[in-house]
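Field reference: sequence -> structure
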Amino acid sequence: MESIVVVRGSSIRNALRDRIARTGVVVVLAAVAGCGPSLEHSAYEERRFETVGVPKVTLTTFGGDVEIRGWSRSEVVVEIEKRGAAAAVGALSLTATQRDGTIAVDVSRPATSGWRRWFNGAASADLVVAIPYESDVEAHTGQGAITIERAAGRIDLRTEDGGIRGTEVRGDIRARSGGGIVRLDRASGRVDAATGEGEISVAGALDVVEVHAARGPVTVEVEAGTRLQGDWTITTGAGQITVRLPDDLRAEIEATAPRGSIVGDRALGGIDLRTFGRHRLHVTPPGAEHMIQVRSAEGDIRFTVP
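Structure field:
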């Protein structure tokens, strides 16, 4: 284990980068003069893991952002930035293990409450992670955003309070937010996304889609050439749903908007949606093998062309 390096002022990140280039594990501490829980404090650490085949990577932080990027190396690199009051940062616990192809990184805080938590002050722990492009990933934060780019595999993302953003993700994708925007761009495969409150947007060559917003608008955009591999469900408790379907998609469509209208700028099954404006639509074109069910409890449903 390398010794602790103390750095002050704006040189923190530069010193960190220089140190990372030479070592496998780094800790950098920075403090701003002060006292009690108001003392600002930062701690940086890095963990590296060599991988073989398709690794499973589990990332957990009690509170903070998680940023994941796929790359071509057979290596997982995790940078941890702990920030907050000095006492609170010092009380955080980092666990990093590798066993039987599974890499697990967990940042937790002690179970304190009342005056002790107030005295220690607040803290957070952000994770910046590089993984092999083909990896199975589980990421969870108690409060914060999750972003992932260029990854393929079984992907499970969960935040209790924050947004989720995925770009160029492929495989079996699950995204859950207690409250925040969920956005998946250039996705392919199976998508299961939900939020307690916020917008959901999914776009790509999608096999199976299950999307639910308790409250918020939903947009699903399907690329040309997509072939459904199962039934789809797209719902919201309150908000507009927009579904962009290519002309070559063959699917049975059942749409319901009890407190809204079903409209669009195209025809489905011979029905001109520009003048439809009703609460229910059911279309079964020739050759349809799977169903797309769309429901907005309170809001319009709009079908458009990508």
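Note: The chain has three helices and 24 strands.
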